[in-house]
Structure formats: C-alpha cells, structure tokens
Backbone:
C-alpha cells in the first residue's frame, strides 16, 4: 500500500474523529436515483471504543436531526458523469438537511455505490517481538497483509482485518495483550476504480465540504439491514439500487466479500420506456404504481395508462394490459438476480453456516421480487429495512435508504482498518511521539 493512500485515509479518519468529538457530522449517499443527506448529532461522552469488536459502539449516542432528499442528477450507475449537475443535487439535499437541523456542517462521510468494487483476501504471519502482542505487532502483520500495488486505475477503499491467529489458534478478534510467538492475520481488501472515487471527492470539495471518509455502499447497507445473528453466522445483503445491485457477505460480524452487478432499477425503467415509447418519468411512474415480476390471471384484463411521448393532454391515453408491463420487467429482474447468484457462488456463499439472504434497496419493493429471488437464488430471503435510528424520519425508513442509514451507523461504529495502526516500534522515539499525538487527538 502506497504512502499516498495511507496518508489520505489517515487524514480522512482524523477528520471524522474530530467531527465526532465536536458532535456533528453529515452522511451523504449520492446514488443514481436520489441524493440523501443526513445530519447526525452525537454525544461524544457516550461513544466508547470496544476492543472486542474493533468498532465504536452505542447507537444511543447518535440522533439524526436533519434529513434532505432530492432527485439525483449527473449520476449514472452510481458514478458521477456530470460534475455540475451532481454538485447541484448535493447542495440541494444538504441545504434541506441543514435547514431542518438548524445547524451547518463542514465534515461529511460519503458512500460510493458504483466504481466497480472488487474484493479479495490477503494473509500474512510475523513473529511476536516481546512475548505479548502489542499494537506494533498488529501493525506489522497488517502491513504485511496489505497489498503493496494495485492494478492501474484502481485504488484501495477498505483494508479490514477479519481474523487473527496466535500460534495457530484462530478466530481471535483482537490479539493485543495475549502471549504467543507467531501472529497471523487475514485481511479483506476492497478496491474500486480510481476515477469515480476521485470525482466524488472533488464534487464534495466543490460543495465547500471536507470529506471525512468514503465507504462502500454494500458494506453500510449490510450494517443497516442484517441483524447481529446474520452478521455473525453468515449473511448476504443484496442492495437492489437504481444504477447497480451490490452484494456484501458478513461472517463473525466482519465484512468478508463485496461485489456488484451493474444492473439496477433504472435499467427496468429504460426497458419500459423503450418498449412502450414513453418518457423515462412516465415509465418510472408506471413501474412504481403497476409494476410486478410475476403475472396473475387477472393481469390480462387489467389495463393501465401508458402515455406515449408527445401525446397531448387532451387525447385519450393509450392503455396496455398489466401483463404486458410485467412481461417487460421480468426478464431484466431475472438477469439481475442471476448476476447476484453468480456473485454469491464466486464468494463461496453456499459453504457458509448461516446462508441468510436479505434484499434491500428501492427495487426490492417491486411485487413478486421475493418470490423471484427465492426461485433464482435457491434460498429463502427476506426484505431488509434499515434499523431504527433516533430521529430518522418515517419517509426515510424504507429499504431505499439502507445505505444512508448504514452510513450513519458507521459513523459511530467504525471498523479497524490497516491505516488505523502505526507500524513503527512503540519503543522508538518516533513511536512514542506518535502514541502521544494519537492520545492527544483522541482526548482533546
């Protein structure tokens, strides 16, 4: 891992920790169909570090005091394609949230839903220097796990330790303070395309905001919708978004796989618009009000309005049978779920103990989606709504807001990453100075 990546990630982590101590941070979800911004108020005294889980805990320490949602512009398949339009949408959502909260925010954590995420494991083993495992030993083994190079045009977004082993005893979540001779670690690394990530950072900067972190959408969607047992025993979160559909796998409460299928609800809307010569807005409305995956016996006799492009308001509107609409929707939904099935097979999901599948995202609410998922994925599934967070408006409590709510949860439950550790020996002068500076930043 390059020094530039470590420096950038540590800078964002410092900004987030500073925002948490001030008690105010914004969570921003820039998606293909909507831009959502939540302003989170925190009680720093109630946020405590839990070394057993490696995460910040205490949902009671946070409250959403402002929420802004607007139609997405300048974003396609989760990636910014028009900087000015995307900036305008972000500013609109931010202004709505700030007006509701009565507060102004400077730091924001963002979620990236496109950028073609790729996931792979890495492992390494080092000797314990002084008999008992210290933070320097953990830093050395994680540094050995972290890839030193990434393919051209890609960048490391997450590098999370998911398992430690001490003298062959595996399943440790935090080996610090334990006695042993050989320390091994398994790491989950997520890389994304560099250009979409930098475009998001540049767009946030143009909105006069400081970026305090970027998180993969599959990760935070899973945090928001999978219950603790599902995260512990093995569960998959399938986020059926507008521009793409993402997959995340959790085991022992750790993210172990991330993937995406570049098909989403917007493709279904486009299929309807093309099939019936409609505008995209009319096609989206038709899908939302009358769409489905499986036809019934009544659908041949039920007709719905399908106005053509250029049709005058005074003309008699064209009507089509609902079965014809479902006939357009079903192939694209099946293609999407088949792509999800391939992702799960590639990740080895069938060998996990729990194998629970949770569907979330706006597209999961299409009638018949659960039945289609059970048939194609071969397992029972459930619709996942995000966990209830204090202050969350009822209008933002549905599956479409799973990533935004999960990002808010992530703010108070950060998972350890390789850049949270300093590989310098704590006995060296630089190491002691670094420890003093970290203590100062955390406590003041």
Residues:
């Amino acid at each position: 891992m390059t020094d530039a990546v470590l420096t950038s990630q540590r800078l964002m982590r410092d900004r987030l920790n500073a925002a948490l101590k001030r008690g105010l941070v914004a969570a921003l979800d820039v998606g293909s169909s909507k831009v959502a911004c939540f302003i989170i108020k925190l009680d720093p005294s109630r946020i405590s570090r839990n070394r057993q889980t490696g995460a910040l805990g205490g949902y009671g320490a946070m409250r959403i005091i402002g929420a802004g949602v607007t139609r997405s512009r300048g974003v396609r398949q989760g990636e910014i394609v028009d900087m000015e339009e995307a900036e305008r949408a972000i500013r609109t959502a931010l202004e709505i949230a700030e007006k509701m909260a009565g507060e102004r925010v400077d730091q924001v954590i963002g979620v990236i839903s496109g950028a073609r995420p790729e996931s792979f494991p890495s492992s390494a083993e080092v000797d314990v220097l002084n008999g008992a495992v210290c933070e320097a030993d953990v830093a050395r083994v994680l540094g050995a796990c972290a890839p030193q190079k990434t393919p051209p045009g890609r960048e490391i977004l997450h590098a999370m330790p998911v398992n430690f082993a001490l003298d062959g005893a595996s399943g440790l979540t935090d080996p610090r303070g334990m006695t042993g001779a050989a320390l091994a670690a398994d790491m989950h690394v997520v890389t994304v395309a560099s250009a979409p990530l930098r475009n998001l950072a540049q767009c946030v900067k143009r909105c006069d905001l400081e970026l305090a972190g970027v998180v993969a959408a599959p990760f935070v969607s899973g945090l928001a919708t999978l219950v603790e047992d599902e995260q512990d025993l093995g569960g998959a979160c399938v986020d059926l978004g507008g521009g793409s559909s993402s997959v995340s796998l959790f085991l022992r409460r750790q993210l172990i796989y991330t993937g995406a299928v570049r098909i989403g609800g917007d493709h279904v809307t486009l299929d309807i618009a093309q099939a019936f010569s409609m505008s995209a807005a009319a096609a989206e409305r038709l899908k939302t009000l009358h769409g489905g995956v499986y036809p019934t016996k009544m659908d041949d006799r039920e007709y719905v309005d399908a106005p053509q492009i250029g049709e005058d308001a005074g003309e008699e509107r064209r009507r089509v049978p609902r079965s014809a609409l479902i006939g357009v929707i079903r192939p694209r939904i099946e293609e999407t779920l088949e792509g999800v099935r391939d992702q799960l097979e590639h990740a080895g999901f069938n060998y996990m103990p729990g194998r629970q599948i949770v569907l979330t995202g706006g597209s999961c609410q299409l009638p018949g989606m659960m039945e289609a998922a059970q048939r194609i994925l071969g397992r029972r599934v459930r619709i996942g709504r995000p966990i209830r967070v204090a202050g969350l408006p009822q209008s933002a409590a549905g599956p479409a807001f799973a990533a935004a709510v999960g990002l808010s949860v992530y703010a108070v439950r950060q998972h350890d990453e390789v850049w949270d550790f300093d590989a310098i020996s704590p006995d060296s002068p630089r190491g002691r100075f670094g420890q003093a500076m970290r203590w100062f930043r955390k406590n003041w």
Notes: Residues 118-193 form a domain with the Dna Ligase; domain 1 fold (CATH 3.30.1490.110). The two ends are 30 Å apart (CA to CA). Residues 49-57, 424-444 have pLDDT under 50 and may be disordered. DSSP finds twelve helices and 20 strands in the chain.
